[in-house]
Amino acid sequence: MEFILPPALEAHAPPEARGLRRDHVRLLVTARATGRIVHGRFIDLPEVLQPGDLLVINDSATLASALTATRADGSRLAFHLSTRLPADLWIVEPRDSQVASGETLALAGGGVARMLVRYPGSSRLWIARLDLPVALPEFLARFGRPIRYPYVPAEWPLGMYQTVYAREPGSAEMPSAGRAFTPEVLTRAAVRGIGIARVTLHAGVASPERDEPPVEEWYRVPAETATAAAAARLGGHRVVAVGTTAVRALESATDEHGRVIASQGWTDLIVTPERGVRAVDGLLTGFHEPRASHLAMLEAFAGRDRLAMAYEAALRGGYLWHEFGDLHLIL
Questions:
Q1: Considering only CA atoms, which of 206, 317, 214 is closest in space to residue 270?
Q2: Are 323 and 316 in contact (CB under 8 A)?
């Protein structure tokens, strides 16, 4: 989907820095069946949903994945960790830099990244072996920063990039659709009879500048989530995924009959309108850049015409884009 995103609609800082609570960002609601669009605030989400609906959240926590690397000639480059692979291998992004197979990059504290091969199908990602002086959590705590892009000019602490329910570190970038949740919203949803279930999907790096699909990512759908999804569907209620990462996890664990099966592993699934969605009835998500691969997933939910109408309404209404911006609920 093509559109022009005005710079004024890019969220340059967390809502807290703009004088808002995180659960007071705006919420645009699109009804798939009718095309009706409603404008509101995220704090009203429990009243928008119905008792018996199931919210599926991604509990992956964000890593401080942005590092600085130094080349043999002394030049420095931004170096992003994306996805941890077995055997101390990583998918990495030497940001806006051309590196060579076999090149060794020096990291802070005596760490080393050895560039092995390009990640298949990508012009910017590599597979590298990391040799770190201490365990990864300690290394990133000392030397890492949250990944940020030029539309966020200031650095913010890692806590600004975490959801309140995050518990398993592993995402290079925040699963940002869940950022607006607060304990108050979660409690009100539970009191209203809305179920909450967890999946884990460790999100890799995105790239606003490229037309590239997402990388393979590790996910887990526990048995209790599969059971809750089945119960919601059996009762005539909706399964609402919080974020495209939750959709990818659920759809990766779904059989040809639309049943969610407890599973874990690596997924390269890309949800498109041609494939459709099988396990999910609604999606809470942010607003995505023109030509972003996630827009294909949104089209699978809403259809191209409904999605275009929603984005036109968001642009006219001054909604904010990116991880610190406003949210879109498709039902």
A1: 214
A2: no
Taking the model in full, what pTM does it have? 0.94
Task: Evaluate whether the domain defined by 66-143 bears CATH number 3.30.870.
Answer: no
Residue limits of CATH 3.40.1780.10 in the chain = 7-62+155-330
Contact of 218 with 260, CB cutoff 8 Å: no
For residue range 241-290, list pLDDT tens digits in order: 999 999 999 999 999 888 999 999 999 998 988 888 999 999 999 998 88
CA pair distance 90, 83, nearest whole angstrom: 6
Distance CA 223, CA 147 (A): 32
Report the relative pairing of strands 104-106 and 89-94 from DSSP bridges.
Answer: unpaired
Across the chain, the runs of DSSP E, i.e. the strands, are 26-30, 37-41, 54-58, 60-62, 66-70, 76-84, 89-94, 104-106, 112-118, 126-131, 168-171, 195-201, 217-221, 239-242, 263-267, 282-285, 327-330
Q: How far apart are CA 232 and CA 217, in angstroms?
A: 26
Dump the DSSP string for 49-86. S-TT-EEEEE-EEEP--EEEEE-TTS-EEEEEEEEE-S
Query: Which residues touch 210 (CB under 8 Å, ≥6 apart)?
Result: 123, 124
Contact yes or no for 148/14 (Cβ under 8 A): no
Tell how far CA 303 is from the center of its chain. Answer: 21
The amino acid sitting at 153 is P
pLDDT in tens, 75-103: 999 999 999 998 889 999 999 888 999 99
Q: Which fold has domain 7-62+155-330?
A: QueA-like (3.40.1780)
> In DSSP terms, which residues pair with 5 in a beta bridge?
none
Give the CA distances from residue 91 to residues 80, 102, 274, in Å, rounded to whole numbers and listed in that order.
Answer: 9, 15, 28
301 HSE (CA, 13 A, CB side): 30
